Amino acid sequence: MKLPLLHHVKLWLKIITLIIGVIVSAVLLADLSISLSTSSQLYKNIETLPSQETALVLGTSKYIRRTLNPYYQYRIDAAIELYKQNKVTHFLLSGDNAHRSYNEPWTMKRDLLKAGIPEENITLDYAGFRTLDSVQRATQIFDANSLTIVTQKFHCQRAVFIANHFSMDTVCLVVPSPTGWANTKIRIREILARTKALLDLYIFNVQPKFLGPKEPIKHEPMPIE
């Protein structure tokens, strides 16, 4: 009696191991495919970055436990430099507006205003609860089909992949990432986020939490170089 039971246990262990292997392989393949398919649209150097009318700056918290979040600061610094070098004329600041004391778009706007960027060159998207929402709302609500996305490399790849799905003309300015364990943890989470993005786009057809009427961005003329 013990032998058949042991045989069944081993069989189930093999099946479970196979299933786990397939899932892990699929997750890693999704991560790799997103990285490879977007590589030509990522730029580390502002000088070689194509000019676009609008930059989509993806939000994150400015502070983490009362300490300035380097992910946030790198994005803001890059956005300011884009404007100074006449690479963009308008900013779409997209992020979470969870409650009165936490407002990613307004926080970004305040820092851009301090840097001398005119208020009329800034549009806020308070419903950018996640990357899919930010990118899809950029085209469907704000009529911004050509964009320079501003964020870290791991985030750039997923954001551009989503934009490509919606036939948008996008490039991404890759801003620095902090080093160390914190960045490693975020990169691990990103692998799972990419799998979810593929499922949302191709299986579940997930829509942004909020859409609504169009609010086309009014662009300032691009400077003549």
From TrEMBL:
CDD domains: YdcF-like (cd06259). It comes from the Bacteria. One of its GO terms (cellular component) is plasma membrane. Coiled coil: none annotated. Residues 55-192 form the DUF218 domain. InterPro entries: Cell_Envelope_Assoc, DUF218. Keywords: Cell inner membrane, Cell membrane, Membrane, Transmembrane, Transmembrane helix. Its main location: membrane. The chain crosses the membrane at residues 12-34. It is found in: Cell inner membrane. It is a single-pass membrane protein. Participates in the barrier function of the cell envelope. This is SanA protein. It comes from Aliivibrio finisterrensis.
